[in-house]
From TrEMBL:
The keyword Ligase does not apply. Low-potential electron donor to a number of redox enzymes. Keywords: Electron transport, Flavoprotein, FMN, Nitrogen fixation, Transport. InterPro entries: Flavdoxin-like, Flavodoxin, Flavodoxin/NO_synth, Flavodoxin_CS, Flavodoxin_lc, Flavoprotein-like_sf. It comes from Marinifilum flexuosum. PROSITE patterns: FLAVODOXIN, FLAVODOXIN_LIKE. This is Flavodoxin.
């Protein structure tokens, strides 16, 4: 498995904490975590495998720092890269827009020449609608710190174990 860049946007520290858990599961020797506020398209291009993580704010809005980072993603050469996504959201208070920020990232990446990996089951979540659900699966790892924080560590560990099989 080659080097992995974990890029996240975090307003309250929750997304950063999940990014660090993912980095710990992968191993700090092969994974680096980078706040998108300090990142550019050139930083994305340094890695063969990418993990992008964002929270969803309000009713389906992408985290502020990631909103500005979409242009960097669109301008980066993503040819041949494998990209996995994770998103934070509140499935009860915002059940009509659960992890929509992750869905917006997915839609941006669909336009790039990269391979999207890391989809997960919708089992264990209760929400009405999500831009991050495609063909009955979530496009990445969904984390609900507000309502299911007790499941975060297991969800991260299980997802990372799957990613290790999907990344080079």
């Amino acid at each position: 498995m080659q080097n992995i860049g974990i890029f996240y946007g975090s307003s309250t520290g929750n997304t950063e904490a999940v990014a660090k858990k993912i980095q710990e599961e992968l191993g700090s020797d092969i994974a680096s975590s980078i706040d998108v506020v300090d990142a550019s398209a050139a930083d994305l291009e340094k890695f063969n495998n990418l993990i992008l993580g964002t929270s969803t704010w309000g009713i389906g809005d992408l985290q502020d720092d990631f909103e500005g980072f979409l242009a960097e993603i669109s301008s980066a050469n993503m040819d041949g890269k494998k990209v996995a996504l994770f998103g934070l959201g509140d499935q009860y208070s915002y059940s009509d827009s659960f992890v929509d920020g992750m869905g917006e990232l997915y839609e941006t990446l669909e336009e790039q020449n990269c391979e999207l990996v890391g989809e997960t089951s919708t089992d264990g979540y209760e929400y009405d609608a999500s831009r991050a659900e495609k063909d009955g699966k979530l496009v990445g790892l969904a984390i609900d710190i507000e309502n299911q924080d007790d499941q975060t560590a297991d969800r991260v560990a299980n997802w990372v174990a799957e990613l290790k099989n999907q990344f080079n």
